[in-house]
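Work Package 4 report. The design task specified in the project plan requires that, given a folded chain encoded as structure tokens, an amino acid be chosen for each position. We show below one input record used in the internal validation round.
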């Protein structure tokens, strides 16, 4: 069973950047498709990105496309979410996901 722990969240002003990490333990995630989701206050959890292990391609939600980028470090068993040009509407708890396993999330707050 894999365990996931997100980190890297914090408070940033609009236009700034953050890099989130999702560290996996228990087994390798190098052959797993990995996803990022987020949940804003008072809203449902929404899809952010899907990174495919086999070809390295990533699908992004329209709301983050061109601003966010996913990368992996298989040696560290970690996946990253680089977030640039952040907007107040990006404020949310960000979660990484591996099939039915979720991390505990990391809070990103973007001030205007």
């Amino acid at each position: 069973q894999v365990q996931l722990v997100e980190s890297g969240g914090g408070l940033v002003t609009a236009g700034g950047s953050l890099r989130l990490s999702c560290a996996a333990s228990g087994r390798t995630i190098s052959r797993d498709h990995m996803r990022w989701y987020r949940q804003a206050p008072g809203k449902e959890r929404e899809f952010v990105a899907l990174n495919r292990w086999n070809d390295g391609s990533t699908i992004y939600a329209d709301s983050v496309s061109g601003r966010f980028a996913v990368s992996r470090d298989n040696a560290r068993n970690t996946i990253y979410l680089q977030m640039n040009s952040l907007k107040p509407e990006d404020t949310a708890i960000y979660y990484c996901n591996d099939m039915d396993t979720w991390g505990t999330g990391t809070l990103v707050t973007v001030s205007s």
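DSSP finds no helices and eleven strands in the chain. Validation will be extended to a larger panel in the next phase.
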